[in-house]
Amino acid sequence: MSVRKPSPPSFDDARNRRQKVRSAGLDPNYWYAVEHDHKLGKGEAVEVTFWGESVALWRDENGALHAIEDRCCHRQLRLSQGEVRGCQLVCKYHGWCYDGSGEVVDIPHETFGRKKPALRVRQYPLRVRYGLIWIFFGDPARADGVPMPEIPELEGDDRWACVPVDFTWNAHHSMIIDNVSDFTHAYLHKKYKPFDGASKLTRLVEEDDRVLMSYDTKVGGGKISGMFVDRKAVDTSSMDLGYQYPYQWSNTDNAIKHWCLVLPESEERTRVFFLFYFKSFKVPLTPLKIPRWLMTPFLRISNELLVKPLLAEDGWAVEEEQEGWRRHWDAPIAELNPAVHAMQTLTIRKWEEYLASQQGESRRPRLSAEG
Fold this sequence. Notes:
single chain; 2 domains; alpha+beta; Naphthalene 1,2-dioxygenase Alpha Subunit, Chain A, domain 1; 18 strands; globular
């Protein structure tokens, strides 16, 4: 008779860094990208999940966005499964109506002589920036004081072209951060060659809530993609990267940049948004630049033909790593790249700090219902 292997340990029970980082969450007191702005039309609602917490994101008939707890006060059904009616979100079961603040504003059926109860669900702060909808899942009183990623190249009349892409991968968020910041996996991308296999880590700095690193590498060496890079104007021999908790970014000679924004849905599932943006491209076999007005449609085609297939290789890898973690969570640490060690240490520290802050909140005296 076979003996079932125990499940991976929880964060509190983890014994080493590998186990801790693979069970750590992300601090909700940051802004997280959750959806493309253009994908949510008027009168539409979707479910957004952050570390098991379900949020109903919806756009009313006037075009205003709202984010409230995805739970009807009545029977606890998901409100995201209901319908948008005017400026209200209506539960599919009994028709209870919620406004954008999460308050129950109408009960359309018999209330048996009782007054409408004063009920509401939680409302979440949200913003729209860089073509994405962002939600603050933590303490709403802190939302205005927490900065979002600043990407000046994507603002103003002369902004660079950017067409965000996203994936949902069955993998822990830390595996994705490890992947996009670790250039030792160039072998995986031998077909597309976004960076050369001889990459060398030349800088590693840990400061505050950031890990900064640089690699000497050949950027954009693919047979097709490489034809559009003007190597006379752009130094593609190195790349700077940063894990700016909880976000990740890269920069090649201030001409080729990207941000990676993870949304941890659970310990084994992550939605990830990529913003690749470019100062310019050249017309292949000529010194001419692609006109700015043509860059966005060009990137849409490039995303489908090159970027998405390339990133699908990363998706396959991290999902395989997740399966390997499930089977061999007690394997010893065998990581060689010090940058990965540093990023994992930061993720663990931030999660420990968040858990400690929550314990402090739970110990504070609370007023009784009578005040």
